[in-house]
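Hello forum,

I keep getting stuck at the same step: I have a sequence, I want structure tokens, and every attempt I make locally crashes halfway through. Rather than fight my setup again tonight, could one of you with a working pipeline run this one for me? It's a single chain of 231 residues.
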Amino acid sequence: MTYDKLHISSKEDYEICQFNNGKGSALNLTMIKDLSGYISDFPSRPAKGVILTGQGSIFSVGLDIKELIAQDPEETKVFFEAFFSLLMNMVKAPFPIISAVNGHSPAGGCVLAIASDYRVMADGEKFRIGLNELPVGIMATPSIFHLYSFWIGKRTAYHYLMTGTQVGPLEAKQVGLVDELAKPEEVLNLAELKMKEYLQYDYKTWCGMKQNLRLGLVKDMEDDLNNGHIK
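Reply #2:
Ran it on my machine without issues. Output:
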């Protein structure tokens, strides 16, 4: 299967999935569906893990606000349903997902990153990551809060969300939002090293461990989405 908004490269027993939707890799409906389909279909592929990355100095600018503004309410509902379907596909994925955060990663870009198992981020004062939904008028759902706090704790997640805070790489690492920093040109290499580390273990055991550790998170997120908290 081909995905117009993704560039897939095979590397040994894992794949690199580079976002391919313009310079900022904005998450429009087409890209969301492509990525969701790719993650859903991944277990049928020969690879055992996937590394997500963007282009240039941007991982993803997040949801395509221009597309959202131009939509009527029904189209907006379809858009957010597709986005949260992608999010749950990523959170529940039994295989390893690593984000090579090659630069800026605000809003929806940050959501993709925190849905993965490990994040290597480009080090540099100009780069920012975080959920800045509040300043752009988008309400973070309880499921997003659960996912954010899974990594950085409820207190920090609460304060970050209530101020639309984005942080630089150093603070992101200090609070646990990312796991490792690297020079921009080394981000992907370090992500590949981490993937190789994951894949050296018994694959069935590693995947089962991941699912066990995320049981509570998955339940909390699914409960919120089943209660209609999608936007």
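Residues 68 and 75 are 8 Å apart (CA to CA). If your local run keeps crashing, start a new thread with the error log.
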